[in-house]
Amino acid sequence: MRNTYIRILFTLIIIGFSSQLNAENRRVIPLDMYLIVDGSESFQNSKNDAVTWINSQVVDRTLMDGDRITIWRAGNSAQIIYSGDVSGGKDDIKNALNSLLTDARTPDFSGALTEAASRVSRTPQDRLSYTMLVTASAEGLEQTLTGGARNLLRWFRSEKYERWQVLVVGPDITPRVRQAAASLLDALR
To answer: How many domains in the chain?
Structure first.
């Protein structure tokens, strides 16, 4: 049964990020986006490419009015650099991403994932939640995967780019998969 839920979630994610779809024309359920971005020195050379991708694929294409976004900088400790509702302009979100510092020795993904998981658990049932982690730091990611936060990565999908990667994290997917699948079926009827 769990594999069915995972397949449904994976299908929904693919549909949502497919270049053929426009989120503004398809999604009717508001989204709470939890975005964790590497704030380490390892990310410095990748930052411009990654932020351009985030602004294009996440901020411009996925987020719409009524959504909420919280962005963490995974520096020496996890720090929220932006949190708010998406309404009208998205310049404040893009400015927060563009001004992200990349000076930490090791990114604190565990702290950010713990905070994100806490928020996901409080997300109302009438909203979707979505957690993404953007990194160029193999060391920081390895510590997260082998440390105490590994249980927060029960399911994730990875997209690798030349010098960085995106993980779509699903710390509490079972109720969310059911909700997303039911919404998709309703939309298709």
So the answer is: 1
CA dihedral of residues 36, 138, 171, 186 (deg, nearest 10): 70
The residue assigned the tokens 């049932």 is 125
Domain that holds residue 128: 30-188
Distance (Å, whole) CA 83 – CA 1:
35
pLDDT digits (tens, 9 = 90+) for 32-71: 999 999 999 989 988 999 999 999 999 998 899 999 999 9
Give dist(CA 96, CA 94) in Å, integer.
Answer: 5
This prediction's pTM: 0.72
In a domain, 182, yes or no: yes
Token pair of 106 as six digits: 């090791």
**DSSP line for 90-128:** -HHHHHHHHT----BSS--HHHHHHHHHHHHHTS-TTSE
Does residue 64 lie in a domain region?
Answer: yes
| Within-domain flag for 104 | yes
27-36, 68-77, 117-126: which range is least confident on average? 117-126
Cβ atoms of 108 and 137 within 8 Å: the answer is no
CATH of the domain at 154: 3.40.50.410
Instruction: Evaluate if residue 4 carries a pLDDT over 60.
Output: no
Higher pLDDT pick, 96 / 114: 96
Q: Classify residue 24: in a domain, yes or no.
A: no
